[in-house]
## 1
Amino acid sequence: MDKKRCFWVNSDQIYIDYHDKEWGTPVYDDKTLFEFLILETFQAGLSWITILKKRENFRKAFDDFDYQKIALYSEEKYDSLLQDSGIIRNKLKVKSAITNAKFFMEVQKEFGSFSKFIWGYVDGKPIVNTFHKREDVPATTELSDKISKDLKKRGFKFVGSTVMYAYMQAVGMVNDHTTDCFRYNEI
């Protein structure tokens, strides 16, 4: 018997695996939180399936999402990333990955971890929504607006409210699995 999944999951196995094993599962690890920050910022204006299909290329190109290394990328490394056909070669997005790595570490210094900072917006536990259909799921919320403004004030790039809400969904700050999805109750 087929499992009932969220409306956005298509028949592509990479999408199914992502939905079934990752999306909406609470993430408290700074390394993974940074990975999703990079992936979500590159996704801006594109489909998520595009990013998922290139995820391993991103991992390789960006030193396994090691923010300490990324923050120190030279102009030569930046130029090489722009030549890497395995990733999204958008100059501003590549530059933002380097910029965001630097500010990610600034947040760590201030709060002890990025996790403490970002999860502080939801008191350390996911917001459980009860959405039934596609039309119920928002693209932004007051909270994603607030997080976006805070991150922008801190110098982060490509962190608009829509990107931040998608980030909150991905890292499990909100449980936006629809109520008929098998993952809704698992999470």
## 2
Amino acid sequence: MMTGSPEVCVLLPTMNEAATIADVVADYREAGFENVLVVDGGSTDETRQLAAEAGARVVEQSGEGKGQAVREAVAEHVDAEFVLLADADATYDAADATAMLEPLRDGRTKHVIGDRFADMRPGAMTRLNRIGNRLINRAFARIHGRDYRDILSGYRAFTRESFEELSLAAEGFGIETEMAVECVKRGVPVEVVPITYRPRPEGSDTNLHPIRDGGIIFLELYRKAKTNNPLFYFGSVGATATAGGVLMAIYVLYDWIANGVGHEILAIVSAAGILLGFQLLMFGFLADMILTLHREGIDGHERE
């Protein structure tokens, strides 16, 4: 049975968050959110016990990773109309919850992203993480044509119905990126709300690995471009192949003219690279035209 207001479920994925979970659950309950759901990924500390004692419903996910935890929770354990997704490390402020949920309650949007850069407290993010976040956000805006300012933010609010429209498969921290990409692809309205982002309390260790997870996120952005921006996806590979083929052809031609040395194998490889590159560029243009026509058809159908 659900407890508290049926309208909002505060969803907290956890993994060894004993240092902060009790305070985080208490903060949301004091803010008026009695329906706090903790989905634990197999913590080896007292996370589950402390969360339950603080008043949260606690379930243990069947798989691994934050992405899997969120999908499983919404599919099997959430009946509320709205979901407020936050991290359990006390970096987000429960006082921002009302502002996060307001656009949903007003019907202005279906997905809300909390912008951590609007009020980032000193020490909340390392210099390396800041640079990585900026690069990822710029790449997202370039590839997918939307500027959501902070697509890696873990503070989200969304309607359960809109979440079920998204095709999500990411297991770990790539879930935030995947949700942003899917919102663009599915035409889900998104609003960005400024929030406060605080440093993790002492004794609380992060589960995020900047280099590894950053690489995964970049690959996810590029992989998703295949269906959301095919011109970029195929065009970038095509342009690289063409450029490589042209450079190789220049070298072959120069060595033949200057030194009388022929490179038949390299000449074949360069021709193949140029041909492949042009084919990929043409395929990218055609795929982009088809996608544009498809989207225009959907928009026209919705207007009718």
## 3
Amino acid sequence: MPVKLRTYWKRYLLGAVALLVVLAVGGPLFYARVIEGDAAAPLAVGAGQTAATGELSGTYTVSAGSESGYRVHEILGGQSIDAVGRTRDVSGSATLSGSQVTAGEITVQLATVTSDQARRDNQFTGNIMNVAEYPTATFRLTQPVDLGAGFTGGDRATADATGELTVRGVTRPVTFPVTAVRNGTGIDVSGSVPVAFADFGVTPPSIGDFVKVDPTGQIEFLLKLAPAS
């Protein structure tokens, strides 16, 4: 083989090796920072609600603007990512007696939960949640939640909610903090429920050491409660 040709092939091979190294190291970084981008901020009640009006006691229903979903930490090729999926297909109701929430139940339609990646959504609705068999996740309040006397006058309240969370046909007791504020005649409520996937028969997906999903995550929600007509 002529010297020039041997030199060309050496350069070609070195270039190919260098490209593979760049793809192995830089590919996940490019995906995490450019394709995946920044994760959506946690769901939370806003700061610009309308002044509270009307009687507080009564029954409220989940209305337009409500949202729920998941947040879970992933490792992709050594890059740290927060995966977030959301849906506005949320329904339910809550009953208040004064500033005390005496009953409540929320249902989320899991088939409509989407993230910014179709491959993740296919995993979520298929192998992970099996929405064909278990189309919904529900939470039912089992203990009253006292939002405090100041909530009646419009103060923002934070309290613990205790109830039963049902996912994939498995029901577990949960306790988590919620934040609530009156918004005109309605009430805005947000919170985050910590979840260990194994408790609900869910195995986090993984591909060797390249893709790993944490064994725990969060169920986030923002509820817009309107007085029942």
